[in-house]
Amino acid sequence: MAIIGGGITGLSAAFRLQKMMDETKEEVDVTIIEASNRFGGKIETLQREGFTIERGPDSFLKRKREALDLVEELGLSDQLVSNNLGKAYILKNRELHPIPEYSFMGVPSLLKPLLDSSLLSEDGKARALNDLFIPPYPPFDDMSVGDFFAGRLGQEMVDDIINPLLSGIYAGDLYKLSLRATLPQFIELEKRTGSLILGAKQVLPKNKKKTSQFATLKNGLSSLVDRLVDAIRFPMLKNACVTRIEKMNGRYKIVLKNGETLVADGIVFTLPHEKTQDILSDCPYLKQPNAEPCTSVGTVAMAFDAAQVTIQKEGTGFVASNKEPSAITAATYTHLKWPHTTPSGKALIRCYVGKKGDEAILDESDEIIIQNSLDNLKDVVDIDGNPEFSVVTRLRESMPQYVVGHTQWLKQIEETLGHDYPHVYLAGASYDGVGLPDCIRQGNKAAKRLFNELLVDA
Ligand SMILES: Cc1cc2nc3c(=O)[nH]c(=O)nc-3n(C[C@H](O)[C@H](O)[C@H](O)COP(=O)(O)OP(=O)(O)OC[C@H]3O[C@@H](n4cnc5c(N)ncnc54)[C@H](O)[C@@H]3O)c2cc1C
């Protein structure tokens, strides 16, 4: 078997296959094939001058169990750290406004925090309250996140609250993003309660104590990758870019860029979908008709002496409103949200840059990206001088866009591919969830299917 791609999805798939083999005493050759010179894909932690800096993802959701379960299986539970709680803000008109309390993905569950909010105009608030009176949508299979929320709560609410909150996860155009693939729970809530506000009330019981939702590892997420790489006994190829797959008598010849080949009976692809599409170029149905290219984003970590930084509005960071003419789309006061990352007497702020339709900043030099981010940051945080050092990371075409119809398309391509390429599976951020727990779940699932098909049912 072959697993193509050594990000968290591919490594999880390999680890799961190994576990199943250990449990059943079945043996089969598995090779992990990674194009770059390191494993982990988007996950990359940098240790520098006592700081733990995440260049990509910084944590995972605890509610989805797969990441926590993997951490436990790998014996890393004692390294787990949960985030500090704190207020989060939305940047609008160069000012920070608190996100209304008791809201679920931006949808208010109580009226008072919405009515008191400085984020919306009086008209915007009145329009949001209409949600309580307008009838539910007639049954539908899918529609865009933007249309769905704007139809119920109004445009202002989408631009100034919902869009900024979702942009950290999808960095996309909400009017193309599939509701069913990204936030299906809202379809159900609206159908059941006839209103998003009433639906949010059911999901967020009043006076429920706020608890930490995210976790990471003390030495950064790369320690999860390192532990996986240590635990996996299969051959793991680096600098091995797959360019083509050829069918040969029910098996597959995997061709690498350097001309070398491997033979496999089953394959799990864990690459960004565009890359898989190039490799399986004889499968035109893999191209989604209304596909949108992945969005490119960047992170800018800035390390300061604590005395240089005064956070005026106490909290853990902010996201920028959709229309804010700011280079940064979000910022985390990492030393406050994740104190273990920062030596005492220091401060660490991580900004995000780049969003759909505004990715040109990533073509600028590091110096310009840092200067622009710092200038924007200084609007809302008192910063004296320049960072002691900064780390810019460009993650090109890194945020997959689940466009309207995504779920239906995925079902179709899985069926057709299963017919054309038996024992070949697609898993990872391009398909069924972008978060780390989603990727781990997909890696596990593909491994189980392949194992059952090739070893149990054979
Ligand atoms: C800036 C940013 C911040 C994020 N923050 C969070 C967060 O805080 N929490 C969270 O849960 N999620 C977060 N995410 C999402 C999450 O990090 C990703 O969805 C996840 O890491 C993707 O894992 P993957 O294994 O599916 O893909 P990747 O990590 O993209 O791995 C794919 C691998 O395939 C390799 N590859 C590509 N082409 C070939 C080829 N032809 N042959 C062989 N190998 C190839 C690549 O080199 C790569 O190593 C974030 C994403 C980004 C971009």
From TrEMBL:
NCBIfam families: PRK11883.1-5, proto_IX_ox. SUPFAM superfamilies: FAD-linked reductases, C-terminal domain, FAD/NAD(P)-binding domain. It catalyses: coproporphyrinogen III + 3 O2 = coproporphyrin III + 3 H2O2. This is Coproporphyrinogen III oxidase. Residues 8-450 form the Amine oxidase domain. Its EC number is 1.3.3.15. It holds the Pfam family Amino_oxidase. GO terms for molecular function: oxygen-dependent protoporphyrinogen oxidase activity. Its cofactor is FAD. Keywords: Cytoplasm, FAD, Flavoprotein, Heme biosynthesis, Oxidoreductase. It is an enzyme of class 1 (oxidoreductase). It is found in: Cytoplasm. One of its GO terms (biological process) is heme biosynthetic process. Pathway: Porphyrin-containing compound metabolism; protoheme biosynthesis. Belongs to the protoporphyrinogen/coproporphyrinogen oxidase family. Coproporphyrinogen III oxidase subfamily. GO terms for cellular component: cytoplasm. Involved in coproporphyrin-dependent heme b biosynthesis. Catalyzes the oxidation of coproporphyrinogen III to coproporphyrin III. It comes from the Bacteria.
